[in-house]
Amino acid sequence: MALNILITGATGYIGGSVLSGLLSSDKPLFEKNHIFVAIRSEKHVKTLSELGVKVALIDLTNEKSVSEGVLKNETSALEPVQARNLIAALGQRRNATKKDVFFIHTSGTSAWSSAFGSPYGLVKDTDPLFEKEKAVTGSEPFPTDIAVIEEAEKAGVTSYIIPPPIIYGRGDGEWNKLSAMIPAAINAAISRKVVEKFPTNARTMGTHISDLTAYYLRLIEKILEGADLPSGKQGYYFPIAHRFSWWDVLDRIAKALEARGLVKDGELREWPNYDVAAEALAIPAAVLPKLYVTEYISTPQYSLSCVELLTYGCSNEVIGEKKNLLGWVPQWDEDRFLTQIDDEIKDVLELGLEKIGLLAAVSQSLGKK
């Protein structure tokens, strides 16, 4: 019997793209009649139903609603919004059916940055990351990762953690099609008629949304095939396609905006101060350094060779080695990203800046600290 898949966040950037990827795949394991979508608002029911998937109205903040929805639909979970409720319901489902259930949680690589208090420097998804997270307190989204793993273990649910890096590209979902950080920078430049940078450059990590979708689908396919994959405390999977320099990206944006007559010129300038940048990017000033500004590695317990430093650059360094277990080969690299940066601008101009998903959620969460 095929395993059912429940997708939450299907109206968002990542969840919508994953749903689209599942529906467009020719893999026989991804049967449309075994795909469920959990939503809280009836306004999306008609559109999702027309895609041929089963729609479940579930309030993910309500334990009873989640429990009834999961038990009724015999679902597994992808991209949970309220992890504890979904895990508890999946545990109940496992006890009732005696069948394995699986939980994929979307986290974020930024938590491994020194800006978030991580003392570890370079980390790999084959490292003992759960133990490293447990040793660090007060860093988001570490507590959520830990809770997912511990709650899933208690409930007999097999869990996986996927922390995407900076995502770019146009999504394939029905609603939110824009990523967060790069569109915000483009929108700020258009508004201020100039492209601005922070005084310290950073080389960070990126993945095109199509490659990220492929990563999720490879993991789901392996689960459905019954592959023996690391899970739980060993179940971290980093979908890192490549690295890039923020100044290189901003320079390409500046030149492309100049060609469109949307900025005064194609030169990069420094932000006057964090308050101006925060207002233009629509991000709380206290959060801004954690999202856009990172410092180069300088901790005494961490050192890199010159070659590694040139390759990896800044301190939020994550290496995804488990991509080989999944057979994931990204189609985008740094050169392709930079040469097609005008696509990001076209999407912002066409779709408008969507205040969605990751940027809004992280900003709200960190702004409370």
Automatic annotation (TrEMBL):
User: In terms of domain of life, where is this protein from?
Assistant: Eukaryota
Residues of the NmrA-like domain: 4-68
Q: Which Gene3D superfamilies match?
A: NAD(P)-binding Rossmann-like Domain
PANTHER family (UniProt xref): NAD(P)-BINDING DOMAIN-CONTAINING PROTEIN-RELATED, PROTEIN YEEZ
Q: What is this protein called?
A: NmrA-like domain-containing protein
